[in-house]
Automatic annotation (TrEMBL):
Protein name, UniProt field: Aspartate aminotransferase family protein
PANTHER family: ADENOSYLMETHIONINE-8-AMINO-7-OXONONANOATE AMINOTRANSFERASE (PTHR42684), BETA-ALANINE--PYRUVATE AMINOTRANSFERASE (PTHR42684:SF1)
InterPro entries attached to this UniProt entry: Aminotrans_3, Aminotrans_3_PPA_site, PyrdxlP-dep_Trfase, PyrdxlP-dep_Trfase_major, PyrdxlP-dep_Trfase_small
Gene3D superfamilies linked: Aspartate Aminotransferase, domain 1 (3.90.1150.10), Type I PLP-dependent aspartate aminotransferase-like (Major domain) (3.40.640.10)
Entry keyword set: Aminotransferase, Pyridoxal phosphate, Transferase
Reported cofactor(s): pyridoxal 5'-phosphate
GO molecular function, one term: transaminase activity
Family in the record: Belongs to the class-III pyridoxal-phosphate-dependent aminotransferase family.
Record organism: Falsiroseomonas frigidaquae
One Pfam family it belongs to: Aminotran_3
Keyword Transferase: yes
Amino acid sequence: MNEIQIPRRNNLDAFWMPYSDNKYFKSTPRMLARAEGMSYFTPEGDEILDGTAGLWCCNAGHGRREIVEAIQKQAAVMDFAPTFQLGHPIAFEAAARVAEMTPEGMDRVFFVNSGSEAADTALKIALAYHKARGQSQRVRLVGRERGYHGVGFGGMSVGGIGGNRKQFGAQLPYVDHLPHTHLPAQNSFAKGQPDHGEHLADTLENLVALHGDTIAAVMVEPVAGSTGVLVPPKGYLEKLRKICTQHGILLIFDEVITGFGRIGKPFGAERLGVTPDIMTMAKGLTNAAVPMGAVATSNEIYQTIVDGVPAGIELFHGYTYSGHPLASAAAIATLDLHKAEDLPGRALAMEPYFEEAAHAMQSTPGVIDVRNMGLIAGIELEPTPGKPGARAMEVFRTCFDKGVLVRVTGDIVALSPPLIIEKPHVDRLFGTLDEAIRAVA
């Protein structure tokens, strides 16, 4: 019992990696050791241009001194404080800063720790709202094919990615789905919002006819990112908003990817001109320096739930780390950077150059579609026969070995660089991607 315990050698076995081919990675690891500005660096010191802002999240670039110092300062003052029946000032300040950016009338902010938690929280708030207003029959939730709302059972059920569901059996009951908006025969190589597909929103009327007044909420991404950059057709979100309002259904926007400047405005709702009833957010909220997410609701939803209970807890929901002091400090510093450097404005200004570079990929052999909005682009590749996803994965690995980080989903290469990107970075990003696609063709 008094033997000295020697730490075991780090052979990579202990960490079960998420969304990864663990067997392949641990035989051929590609590691990141440091990050600064637009780049990661490997343990060997090789620079890797970040074409994905980490995972759609480091919008202000890496290693920002202002965010680091805010976290350090807060850790020294107070490392943790509960927010169940207690409060700490910095969480309230962070919420107020978020509310300054959200659409008018959406001033109530519930903090969580991730986009997955934000999705499940938004769905629960929607159900609680209808119950508080005397419409307990509204229990049905509607998502969309090829939608992604995290990996909690709520978001996974409303989401529409088969691979995320097939291992886990039954999902939530009372869930239905709208069709996705991807119409390649009509909209291939569209720049920004495609012209065709507004009519797909009418499917919600069919669901209302089928389910009556049992639908509580519809959850969609303004721009679907994780399923390959699906940009909403012109008029589609406007029609969805109109149908929801007509039938007393809450509209939830999942802004985990589109929030905080990614498509040229603070939120996708503003860029696309449609205001939802509830919004989820995460990723860019803290520049990913500390995990944090949030749900913003209309004032009316908050008041209905809170005033619906005479006394005591109004919403039986929350997380130990909701409004964590370090995350709150990171959020405040990040939002200060967004404002001081006008990161949404920078993204909007860079969009035409980024769009031109993306659509120049049309001439690359094997590219069958390009889609884009803001600083998001999806480059779709012709699949290798009998091996879906294999070609894009080879492109991912080849790009990394050439010093550029991209992301793949199926046979689609998704790009979402930090909003501080400049023209030489854009040239290098797409130039390397072009070389990689040609190399694995």
